[in-house]
Amino acid sequence: MISDRKLEHLLLCTHSDVEYHKKTGFKDVELVHKALPEVNQEEIDLSTCLLGKKMDAPLIITAITGGHPSSTEVNQKLAQVAQKLNIGMGLGSQRAAVENPELASTYTVAREEAPDALLIGNIGAPQMEQAREASQMMDLDALAIHLNPLQEAIQPEGDVDTRGYLENIQKTVEIMNIPVIAKETGAGISGNDARALENAGVKAIDVAG
User: Fold this and answer.
1) What is the pLDDT of residue 9?
2) How far, in Å, CA of 126 to CA of 134, rounded?
3) For residues 199 and 166, what is the distance between their CA atoms, to the nearest angstrom?
4) Is beta strand 142-147 parallel, antiparallel or unpaired with respect to 60-61?
5) Rounded to whole angstroms, how far apart are CA atoms 46 and 36?
6) What pTM was computed for the model?
7) Where are the beta strands (DSSP E) in 14-87?
8) 159-167, long-range: CB < 8 A, 24+ apart
9) Where along the chain do its domains lie?
């Protein structure tokens, strides 16, 4: 069941070594100390506007979980942080709640705890026909369509038929009344794919990798 898989994801992250070992590139960056900054630190403004929402910093708690009763508390606490710091938050895939409405509260708790934060819904590319239902589950500022062909290809029950994804993304953009973004789930998005997604009408891209 989808709900059981959501619990498995949480257990894997808390009990297994899931840290990414490949370099991110940050180790190759050294910040040069400036002894004469000539600025007033209190006047530095990190606020930005994304998808029509003003945030106090360009940070988003990206999609993590939802869809199992155990995930309710996780989303609750993440949403409280997003509200307190006025940063964005993305939900985990809402497929579980679309197919079983009894699980909706594991996601809607985020909006209850973060009424003012940028909140991004989430549905998988294979389930784009569920996009409207996902967006109507609560007051969302945007909907992410997540792309995970690599994960699908290597998991036993994976959906490996990706034909028509780009066309369906464009159709989803056209029918939605909130911005649609595209996000990967850890493997990244190439320049060519990013340009294709931009041409399809997505308003933002979460490279996620």
Assistant:
1) 63
2) 14
3) 10
4) unpaired
5) 21
6) 0.89
7) 48-50, 53-55, 60-61
8) 159/126, 162/125, 165/125, 166/196, 166/197, 166/200
9) 46-206
